[in-house]
Design brief:
7 strands; SAM-dependent_MTases_sf; site-specific DNA-methyltransferase (adenine-specific) activity; Adenine-specific Methyltransferase, domain 2; alpha/beta; 258 residues; 2 domains; S-adenosyl-L-methionine binding; 7-stranded mixed β-sheet
Protein backbone atom coordinates (compact mmCIF):
# COMPACT_ATOMS: atom_id res chain seq x y z
CA UNK A 1 0.00 0.00 0.00
CA UNK A 2 1.18 3.52 -0.83
CA UNK A 3 0.40 5.79 2.09
CA UNK A 4 1.92 8.82 3.80
CA UNK A 5 4.38 7.98 6.55
CA UNK A 6 4.97 4.45 5.32
CA UNK A 7 7.63 2.45 7.16
CA UNK A 8 8.34 0.28 4.11
CA UNK A 9 12.08 1.03 4.09
CA UNK A 10 12.30 0.62 7.87
CA UNK A 11 10.05 -2.34 8.45
CA UNK A 12 12.78 -4.88 9.21
CA UNK A 13 14.52 -2.45 11.55
CA UNK A 14 11.36 -1.61 13.49
CA UNK A 15 10.20 -5.22 13.78
CA UNK A 16 13.61 -6.27 15.10
CA UNK A 17 12.64 -4.60 18.40
CA UNK A 18 9.35 -6.48 18.76
CA UNK A 19 8.90 -9.18 21.40
CA UNK A 20 8.62 -12.78 20.23
CA UNK A 21 6.48 -14.17 23.05
CA UNK A 22 3.08 -12.45 22.60
CA UNK A 23 -0.21 -13.84 21.32
CA UNK A 24 -2.14 -11.18 19.36
CA UNK A 25 -0.63 -8.33 17.37
CA UNK A 26 -2.60 -5.07 17.29
CA UNK A 27 -1.86 -2.14 14.99
CA UNK A 28 -4.43 0.62 15.55
CA UNK A 29 -2.91 3.13 13.08
CA UNK A 30 -2.20 0.63 10.32
CA UNK A 31 -1.83 3.13 7.44
CA UNK A 32 0.13 1.50 4.62
CA UNK A 33 0.54 -1.71 6.66
CA UNK A 34 4.27 -2.16 6.02
CA UNK A 35 4.88 -3.29 9.60
CA UNK A 36 1.81 -5.52 9.55
CA UNK A 37 3.06 -7.12 6.34
CA UNK A 38 6.39 -7.89 7.97
CA UNK A 39 5.08 -9.46 11.18
CA UNK A 40 2.72 -11.66 9.15
CA UNK A 41 5.53 -12.58 6.77
CA UNK A 42 7.75 -13.57 9.68
CA UNK A 43 4.89 -15.33 11.51
CA UNK A 44 5.67 -13.59 14.79
CA UNK A 45 2.24 -13.81 16.42
CA UNK A 46 -0.74 -16.15 16.68
CA UNK A 47 -3.34 -13.55 15.65
CA UNK A 48 -3.29 -10.20 13.85
CA UNK A 49 -5.63 -7.22 14.17
CA UNK A 50 -5.25 -4.08 12.06
CA UNK A 51 -7.40 -0.97 12.32
CA UNK A 52 -7.49 2.66 11.36
CA UNK A 53 -9.90 5.54 11.75
CA UNK A 54 -9.84 6.49 8.07
CA UNK A 55 -12.64 4.47 6.46
CA UNK A 56 -11.55 4.67 2.78
CA UNK A 57 -8.22 3.12 3.77
CA UNK A 58 -9.89 0.28 5.66
CA UNK A 59 -12.40 -0.28 2.84
CA UNK A 60 -9.47 -0.57 0.43
CA UNK A 61 -7.74 -3.15 2.63
CA UNK A 62 -10.99 -5.12 2.83
CA UNK A 63 -11.21 -5.03 -0.96
CA UNK A 64 -7.70 -6.48 -1.20
CA UNK A 65 -8.65 -9.19 1.27
CA UNK A 66 -12.12 -10.04 0.00
CA UNK A 67 -12.42 -8.88 -3.61
CA UNK A 68 -8.96 -8.33 -5.11
CA UNK A 69 -10.01 -9.02 -8.71
CA UNK A 70 -12.53 -6.18 -8.67
CA UNK A 71 -9.94 -3.79 -7.23
CA UNK A 72 -7.49 -4.80 -9.97
CA UNK A 73 -10.05 -4.50 -12.78
CA UNK A 74 -11.06 -1.05 -11.59
CA UNK A 75 -7.45 0.13 -11.39
CA UNK A 76 -6.62 -1.19 -14.87
CA UNK A 77 -9.58 0.68 -16.35
CA UNK A 78 -8.58 3.95 -14.66
CA UNK A 79 -4.90 3.48 -15.47
CA UNK A 80 -5.59 3.23 -19.21
CA UNK A 81 -7.88 6.25 -19.04
CA UNK A 82 -5.10 8.17 -17.35
CA UNK A 83 -2.66 7.34 -20.14
CA UNK A 84 -5.08 8.89 -22.61
CA UNK A 85 -5.85 11.99 -20.56
CA UNK A 86 -3.86 13.16 -17.52
CA UNK A 87 -6.77 15.34 -16.41
CA UNK A 88 -8.73 12.15 -15.72
CA UNK A 89 -6.88 11.97 -12.39
CA UNK A 90 -8.77 15.05 -11.22
CA UNK A 91 -12.10 13.54 -12.30
CA UNK A 92 -11.34 10.56 -10.07
CA UNK A 93 -10.25 12.84 -7.23
CA UNK A 94 -13.49 14.81 -7.44
CA UNK A 95 -15.53 11.60 -7.47
CA UNK A 96 -13.63 10.26 -4.46
CA UNK A 97 -14.23 13.43 -2.45
CA UNK A 98 -17.94 13.07 -3.15
CA UNK A 99 -18.25 9.32 -2.51
CA UNK A 100 -15.13 8.03 -0.66
CA UNK A 101 -15.05 5.02 -2.96
CA UNK A 102 -12.18 2.61 -2.09
CA UNK A 103 -11.44 1.92 -5.77
CA UNK A 104 -10.91 5.64 -6.30
CA UNK A 105 -8.82 5.89 -3.15
CA UNK A 106 -6.54 3.07 -4.24
CA UNK A 107 -6.04 4.56 -7.71
CA UNK A 108 -5.25 8.00 -6.27
CA UNK A 109 -2.78 6.54 -3.78
CA UNK A 110 -0.85 4.94 -6.65
CA UNK A 111 -0.85 7.98 -8.95
CA UNK A 112 -0.65 11.07 -6.71
CA UNK A 113 2.67 12.86 -6.32
CA UNK A 114 5.12 10.63 -4.41
CA UNK A 115 2.21 8.70 -2.92
CA UNK A 116 1.76 11.68 -0.59
CA UNK A 117 -1.83 11.65 0.62
CA UNK A 118 -2.84 15.19 1.55
CA UNK A 119 -6.13 16.68 2.73
CA UNK A 120 -7.40 20.23 2.99
CA UNK A 121 -8.91 21.64 6.23
CA UNK A 122 -12.36 20.40 5.18
CA UNK A 123 -11.10 16.85 4.84
CA UNK A 124 -11.04 16.68 1.04
CA UNK A 125 -8.20 14.84 -0.64
CA UNK A 126 -6.18 17.40 -2.59
CA UNK A 127 -2.89 15.78 -3.69
CA UNK A 128 -1.87 16.56 -7.25
CA UNK A 129 -1.02 13.97 -9.89
CA UNK A 130 2.55 12.75 -10.19
CA UNK A 131 3.41 14.22 -13.58
CA UNK A 132 6.55 12.17 -14.10
CA UNK A 133 4.99 8.77 -13.44
CA UNK A 134 1.93 6.86 -14.59
CA UNK A 135 1.47 4.77 -11.47
CA UNK A 136 2.21 1.09 -11.03
CA UNK A 137 1.59 -0.95 -14.18
CA UNK A 138 -1.29 -3.47 -14.17
CA UNK A 139 1.18 -6.32 -14.60
CA UNK A 140 3.13 -5.34 -11.50
CA UNK A 141 -0.01 -4.53 -9.56
CA UNK A 142 -1.44 -7.99 -10.17
CA UNK A 143 1.56 -9.53 -8.42
CA UNK A 144 1.40 -7.00 -5.59
CA UNK A 145 -2.30 -7.49 -4.93
CA UNK A 146 -1.91 -11.26 -5.00
CA UNK A 147 0.85 -11.04 -2.41
CA UNK A 148 -1.18 -8.75 -0.14
CA UNK A 149 -4.31 -10.90 -0.61
CA UNK A 150 -2.44 -13.89 0.82
CA UNK A 151 -0.98 -11.89 3.71
CA UNK A 152 -4.31 -10.34 4.75
CA UNK A 153 -6.24 -13.60 5.02
CA UNK A 154 -5.10 -14.04 8.62
CA UNK A 155 -5.74 -10.41 9.62
CA UNK A 156 -8.83 -9.05 11.34
CA UNK A 157 -9.38 -5.62 9.75
CA UNK A 158 -11.64 -2.95 11.24
CA UNK A 159 -12.37 0.75 11.09
CA UNK A 160 -12.33 2.22 14.57
CA UNK A 161 -10.71 4.66 16.96
CA UNK A 162 -7.65 3.27 18.72
CA UNK A 163 -9.29 3.49 22.16
CA UNK A 164 -11.90 0.92 21.12
CA UNK A 165 -9.16 -1.68 21.43
CA UNK A 166 -9.26 -1.32 25.21
CA UNK A 167 -12.14 -3.79 25.22
CA UNK A 168 -10.11 -6.60 23.64
CA UNK A 169 -6.46 -6.22 24.55
CA UNK A 170 -4.95 -8.61 27.10
CA UNK A 171 -1.68 -8.79 29.01
CA UNK A 172 -0.02 -11.22 26.61
CA UNK A 173 -0.81 -9.17 23.50
CA UNK A 174 1.40 -6.66 21.72
CA UNK A 175 0.46 -3.24 20.32
CA UNK A 176 2.44 -1.31 17.72
CA UNK A 177 1.39 2.32 17.32
CA UNK A 178 2.40 4.53 14.42
CA UNK A 179 0.03 7.51 14.75
CA UNK A 180 0.04 10.67 12.61
CA UNK A 181 3.24 12.47 13.43
CA UNK A 182 3.67 15.84 15.05
CA UNK A 183 3.82 17.94 11.88
CA UNK A 184 1.98 20.69 10.06
CA UNK A 185 -1.65 20.06 9.19
CA UNK A 186 -2.64 18.55 5.87
CA UNK A 187 -1.26 15.03 6.09
CA UNK A 188 -2.98 11.72 6.74
CA UNK A 189 -6.63 12.04 7.54
CA UNK A 190 -7.96 15.35 8.70
CA UNK A 191 -9.04 14.47 12.25
CA UNK A 192 -6.44 15.74 14.66
CA UNK A 193 -4.89 13.28 17.10
CA UNK A 194 -5.00 14.57 20.65
CA UNK A 195 -1.67 13.60 22.15
CA UNK A 196 -3.12 13.36 25.66
CA UNK A 197 -5.49 10.61 24.45
CA UNK A 198 -2.54 8.69 23.03
CA UNK A 199 -0.53 9.04 26.25
CA UNK A 200 -3.51 7.96 28.35
CA UNK A 201 -3.85 4.89 26.13
CA UNK A 202 -0.20 4.00 26.69
CA UNK A 203 -0.65 4.27 30.44
CA UNK A 204 -3.71 2.03 30.13
CA UNK A 205 -1.66 -0.61 28.32
CA UNK A 206 0.92 -0.42 31.08
CA UNK A 207 -1.72 -1.14 33.72
CA UNK A 208 -2.89 -4.13 31.68
CA UNK A 209 0.65 -5.46 31.46
CA UNK A 210 0.49 -5.25 27.66
CA UNK A 211 3.73 -4.67 25.75
CA UNK A 212 3.72 -1.84 23.24
CA UNK A 213 6.02 0.00 20.84
CA UNK A 214 5.35 3.53 19.59
CA UNK A 215 6.85 5.27 16.54
CA UNK A 216 6.77 9.04 16.90
CA UNK A 217 8.84 12.06 15.94
CA UNK A 218 8.52 14.22 19.07
CA UNK A 219 9.96 12.90 22.32
CA UNK A 220 9.02 16.03 24.26
CA UNK A 221 5.31 15.16 24.34
CA UNK A 222 5.77 11.53 25.45
CA UNK A 223 6.36 11.48 29.23
CA UNK A 224 9.33 9.46 30.40
CA UNK A 225 7.19 7.77 33.03
CA UNK A 226 5.21 5.87 30.38
CA UNK A 227 8.07 4.05 28.61
CA UNK A 228 11.22 2.11 29.52
CA UNK A 229 13.26 2.51 26.33
CA UNK A 230 13.62 5.21 23.71
CA UNK A 231 15.61 4.68 20.54
CA UNK A 232 16.37 7.48 18.10
CA UNK A 233 16.25 6.50 14.46
CA UNK A 234 17.96 8.67 11.85
CA UNK A 235 17.36 6.16 9.05
CA UNK A 236 13.74 7.09 8.33
CA UNK A 237 13.40 8.93 5.03
CA UNK A 238 9.65 9.27 4.83
CA UNK A 239 8.68 11.35 1.82
CA UNK A 240 6.44 13.73 3.73
CA UNK A 241 9.27 14.84 6.01
CA UNK A 242 11.44 15.73 3.04
CA UNK A 243 8.80 18.26 2.16
CA UNK A 244 8.70 19.66 5.69
CA UNK A 245 12.31 20.10 6.79
CA UNK A 246 15.96 19.29 6.21
CA UNK A 247 16.40 15.54 6.71
CA UNK A 248 19.55 16.07 8.77
CA UNK A 249 17.42 17.77 11.42
CA UNK A 250 14.77 15.07 11.70
CA UNK A 251 14.61 12.10 14.04
CA UNK A 252 12.15 9.29 14.48
CA UNK A 253 11.88 7.65 17.88
CA UNK A 254 10.83 4.21 18.98
CA UNK A 255 9.35 4.15 22.49
CA UNK A 256 8.86 0.83 24.28
CA UNK A 257 7.51 -0.21 27.68
CA UNK A 258 9.68 -3.33 27.85
Amino acid sequence: MRYSGSKRNLRKYVVSFFPKDCDTYYEPFCGGCSILYTVVEEDLFKKYCASDLYKPLIDTLLCVKNNPQELLRNYVFKWHRLLQNREYYYDVRKHFNENNNPNDFFFLSRTCINGLMRFNPKGYFNSAIHLGRNGITPKMLKKTIRDWYIKLQCVNISCCDFEVLKENIHANDFVYLDPPYYINTGFYYYKELKINRLVDFLFFLNTKGTKWCLSYNNDEVIPQSVYKRKIGNQLAKNVFRKFQMDFSETTDFLFMNY
